Amino acid sequence: MLKGLIAFLLIVLIGGCASADQPPATETTETTAMSVTPQGELKGRISMVGSTTVQPLVEAMGTVYNNIHPDVQLDIGAGGSVVGIQAVQKGDVDIGMSSRHLDDEEILAGMELHQIAIDVLAVIVHPDNPVDDLSLEQLRAIYLGEVTNWQAVGGEDMPILPVVREVTSGTRGAFDEIVLDDQQPDESVVDVQITAGEVERKVATTPNAIGYIGFGHINPDEIKVLTIDEIVPSPETALDQSYTLQRPLLLITGSLSRHLAQNFVDFALSPEGQQIVAREGWVPVIDVEE
Predict the structure, then answer these.
(1) What count of other Cβ atoms lies within 10 Å of the Cβ of residue 276?
(2) How far is CA 103 from CA 82, 99, 100, 108, 118, in A?
(3) Which member of 95, 118, 127, 178 has the greatest number of CB atoms within 10 A?
(4) Rounded distance, CA 75 to CA 87, Å?
(5) Which run of H or of E encompasses 96?
(6) How confident is the model at residue 46 (pLDDT cuts 50, 70, 90)?
(7) CB neighbours of 274 closer than 8 A, spacing ≥ 6?
(8) What is the pLDDT of residues 226-272, one digit of tens each?
(9) Angle between helices 260-268 and 54-68 (to 10 degrees)
């Protein structure tokens, strides 16, 4: 009888100690970066801020990502590439978005750059325009108002109408940076359009016009795409960097980014994420099947 009572008390004591060592199943803390529900689903929050060009792409990815991980909260803001870079440097967000390369001094210890897409700009003219190719220098001269007649670049004797996007456009910013070396086009000669579709329609209906649009917006039945320095804009020439009118679209993580952020980066670089890149009109950084 005594031996049985002692054995029973030992079992109770051992069981009590084991329970004391285990936290409750529902216990969470504010510092938890990522957790997994009992069903294996990810749960947590990812904050992002930065480039207005990258933002809509990330939002499109976020919609699909949330279908897979509904318990992950995505906070996606804009502000520009500089804002995104500085926010990661300070540890204010998990992911910064940038539509340009970073300078060496901007890359601090622990920061990692993840290129998720390529932004390729296509230069377009009216289908009847005999000009097929421009050098980068000729294109720059046209938009700076230094070349004003198509005859000067091998075309017919008619004035050139350069078409641009409005100043807040990310595509406009990319063109001004890449082609114009951050100079401003000659406002006295350019025609300003709001959307890529409006630029394409203007060029398609105006024989002396020239414009630029993102690679994904090309409608070859309506306009003609020029080669630049005899290089055709394509996913292949974007990937090998022989076509110069391009820039990277980046996600940036830092030493203070929550671990869950890497899961979103991995999704962006997965075949499913890269298919979204292609559907949204950008050039994927990995081969994906349509």
Answers:
(1) 24
(2) 11, 13, 9, 10, 18
(3) 95
(4) 14
(5) strand 95-98
(6) very high
(7) 116, 268, 284, 285, 286, 288
(8) 999 999 998 889 989 999 999 899 999 999 999 999 999 999 999 99
(9) 110
Domains in the chain, CATH or no CATH each? 45-118+247-284 (3.40.190.10), 120-239 (3.40.190.10)
Residue 123, Cβ neighbours under 10 Å: how many? 24
CB-based contacts of 124, cutoff 8 Å, min separation 6:
199, 200, 203, 210, 211, 212, 213, 218, 223, 224, 225, 226
Q: Is 231 exposed, middle or buried (0-12, 13-18, 19+ CB in 10 A)?
A: middle
Strand partners, 225: 124
How far from 157 is each of 129, 152, 154, 160, 207, CA to CA, in Å? Answer: 11, 8, 9, 9, 12
Flag whether pLDDT at 20 surpasses 90.
no
